User: Which sequence fits this backbone?
């Protein structure tokens, strides 16, 4: 296979992965939202809210922020710490992996294609 073929495979895998990864991250975020107290909108209220959380709730709130940022990245709003041109950041793959056997297999194929393209 040529480098061009691998790049085409990589682009195809990104297009196939984007929605299932986004759906998985979004479902996880929604599950967390349902168990946490309602998150206020203003900065002052959010600060008080964060201080009122238990350690486990604070951990879940941090994960919720990460999942929301990664969903935004997949939707075209770059997440902090990820290059805007990274269409499928490793963080999103890590958070989506293991929740669906077929999606996990696609993630493995994508990583393999990405390694082959980079190497």
Assistant:
């Amino acid at each position: 296979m040529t480098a061009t073929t691998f790049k085409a495979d990589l682009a195809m895998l990104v297009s196939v992965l984007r929605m299932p990864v986004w759906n998985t991250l979004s479902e996880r975020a929604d599950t967390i939202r349902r168990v946490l107290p309602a998150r206020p909108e203003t900065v002052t209220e959010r600060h008080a809210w964060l201080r009122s959380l238990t350690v486990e709730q604070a951990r879940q709130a941090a994960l919720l922020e990460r999942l929301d940022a990664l969903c935004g990245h997949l939707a075209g709003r770059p997440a902090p710490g990820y290059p805007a041109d990274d269409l499928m950041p490793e963080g999103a793959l890590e958070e989506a992996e293991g929740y669906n056997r077929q999606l996990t297999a696609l993630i493995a194929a994508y990583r393999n294609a990405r390694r082959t393209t980079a190497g």
Summary: Residues 53 and 59 are 9 Å apart (CA to CA). The chain has five helices and no strands. The chain has a mean pLDDT of 90.
